[in-house]
Amino acid sequence: MAERFDCIVVGAGPAGISCAFELAKGGASVLLLERGEYPGSKNVMGGVLYRKMMEDVIPGFYKEAPLERPIVEQRFMMMDKESAVTFGYKGMEWGQEPYNNFTVLRAKFDQWFASKAVEQGAILVNETVVTQCIVEEGRVVGVRTDRPDGDIYADVVVLADGVNSLLAKSLGFHKEYRPDEVALATMEVLKLDKKTIEERFNLEPNQGCTIELFGDATKGILGTGFLYTNKDTLSIGVGTLLSGLIKHKIKPYELLEYVKNHPMIRPYLHGSDQQEYLAHLIPEGGYKSMGRVVGNGVIVVGDAAQLVNAIHREGSNLAMTSGRIAAETILLAMEAEDFSEALLDRYRVKLMESFVGQDMKKYKDSTHHFDKFPQYFDQYIPMMNRAASQMFTVDGSSKWEKQKKIWKEVGTAREKIKIARDAYRAWRVMK
Ligand SMILES: Cc1cc2nc3c(=O)[nH]c(=O)nc-3n(C[C@H](O)[C@H](O)[C@H](O)COP(=O)(O)OP(=O)(O)OC[C@H]3O[C@@H](n4cnc5c(N)ncnc54)[C@H](O)[C@@H]3O)c2cc1C
User: Fold this and answer.
1) Which of 105, 154, 184, 363 is the most core-located residue (most Cβ within 10 A)?
2) Is the pTM of this model over 0.90?
3) Residue 136 forms part of a structural domain
């Protein structure tokens, strides 16, 4: 291993690989360090991969990448204990070029993506844990690893080590996250015959469907569940803020078992076999939980910088875009031979101008709001289900009578005002 590189990237997830790919393509010498046996071996995602941000790195990637299914339908289930109000969109335009998004299995996808960075000239070293950044005179100058030949030096170190980045924390870039700033997600990959998947989800070959689950999927705790179709597997998962799990004394795997056995979900999974069980944290504190992303000789990208849009279950795309912008900034810094915080700060500025910064700002209050007011999930979704059941049950009473009954069940005048106020508040944090 050479002792010195233009850049060291810590972590071979979507953020780190995008950064290493762009840097190597731009002519920089890059070392990509991954603690796992191979890229993707430790990574967890539902996982929807967004075509646009991946194409910004590798145009036409979908012609050769190991993808599962292009998604042509997105459904949303607002679940009560024995019912669900479901809505969604299905469009054939998503099933052909240029596509919208795809399901992927990270263990396969990340390996392929990293191999593309290596083709560009990046050096990938697996099974190597970066234990700390080497700091000299207020500047990050390299990293210390758990290998015998230990220390490696570079002009810039990119921290792409994922949620709860210990390295960024040790530099003082962020504090210990509170339990209401991170979600814990558990998921399973279930083996199911390809044809059965297509019949059950009303799909043609090479079409996929995603279903996002709200309400009783998390027993009313702030969070979401998901059910995604892969080629011959299904991905099912559920994630809630750690604070919710602690408050309700629920274990994450209990929640996953609960959603798998829910009467709205069970029929989709019937006859499938567990292939993998995975658990991972997701940074969900949003814009207000973001720490510093730039210092002298160092840049933080992806989950390590808290870049997740929890409302739209987007993370990989924010990670890839941040990695790409970091690489562009480092190439500029190399030209200027200036790796100071002042120059690298162009990364922060560009990131905030991009959709990443804009979306983080748009939803800056949303997680905190829905965490503070749990009635959206544990009261209003059941209420919506009762209203739908009432309205669609044909029992001889007139629709006027039904409307009146629903309105009465909503509650007293005071309760109605509270609901109107909550609707307004929700609009304000989402607008
Ligand atoms: C259950 C679940 C479902 C999700 N679903 C979606 C989805 O459908 N769509 C979506 O876009 N996003 C989804 N996300 C979020 C998405 O997975 C992340 O936002 C994305 O993976 C972030 O990429 P990253 O490269 O920043 O971090 P990661 O993918 O976490 O990669 C970090 C890498 O750094 C390595 N590493 C960590 N520490 C060290 C160290 N000290 N030394 C060396 N290597 C180290 C890790 O092994 C890992 O490979 C989901 C997340 C979860 C948990």
Assistant:
1) 154
2) yes
3) yes
